[in-house]
Amino acid sequence: MRAAQPNFFLSFDRLGIDPFTRLFPVALRLEGTVRGTGGLDLVDADCATTVPGLYAAGDVATRELICGGFTGGGSHNAAWALSSGFWAGAAAAGFARAARPRAGGAGRVLHRAGGIFLQGPTGPAVDSRALVRAVQAEMFPTERNWVREAGALQDSLERLDALWTRLRAGGALPAGQDADAVLRAREAAALLANARWMYRSALARTETRGMHRRAEHPASDPAQRHRVLSGGLDAVWTGRQAVKQAELEAA
């Protein structure tokens, strides 16, 4: 077993637990679409995204290239994490070298792209931990996210959209927060954004395919052999991207 899945035992070894002789706790964790094919869309072999200079690797990026519409096993996922990390890291380094100011030249001006939790305090204080719990309340229940149904998805989106509107209108961090608290708040906002993308994508796919299950659409639809892309912040959009025949055959 150690030879077949050595990484499985790393956590036990670090904790000093022999899983063959000692009892250990097991907890159920819903991973949503992280273990499926959700993730940032890659536009070339260097793991680049549509944002110049932004490269994705591992679970952040779509794993469709290695496992199609379903999740990969441990060894597949580990190989993808290592390989994509190598490619993305090399490409990011090359991008940084090309963008470096030349000697004697003027430095580049950087502009922040985000808005939530990066502006000055303009509205009521927001508890980022409470925000995370509110998003988890919509994403964790298996009756909402294991087998999906249009009404439940719409209900969740109404609450998630309301949270986003509140933040966008000027939600602020409590006074005196340090850099780590700002980072946690940005992560909470990103979690909220991802939840809205995920559920709108789920509504757009009116079939059951791969990791995605729709209660009112239990079968796969041959006419929906396409990717569902989503994005946007204040107004979330979804779109279809055709899959080439060669990609279908490989999957």
From TrEMBL:
SUPFAM superfamilies: FAD/NAD(P)-binding domain, Succinate dehydrogenase/fumarate reductase flavoprotein C-terminal domain. The lineage of its organism: Bacteria, Pseudomonadati, Pseudomonadota, Betaproteobacteria, Burkholderiales. Residues 147-222 form the Fumarate reductase/succinate dehydrogenase flavoprotein-like C-terminal domain. InterPro entries: FAD/NAD-bd_sf, Fum_R/Succ_DH_flav-like_C_sf, Fum_Rdtase/Succ_DH_flav-like_C. It holds the Pfam family Succ_DH_flav_C. Residues 207-226 are annotated as: Disordered. This is Fumarate reductase/succinate dehydrogenase flavoprotein-like C-terminal domain-containing protein.
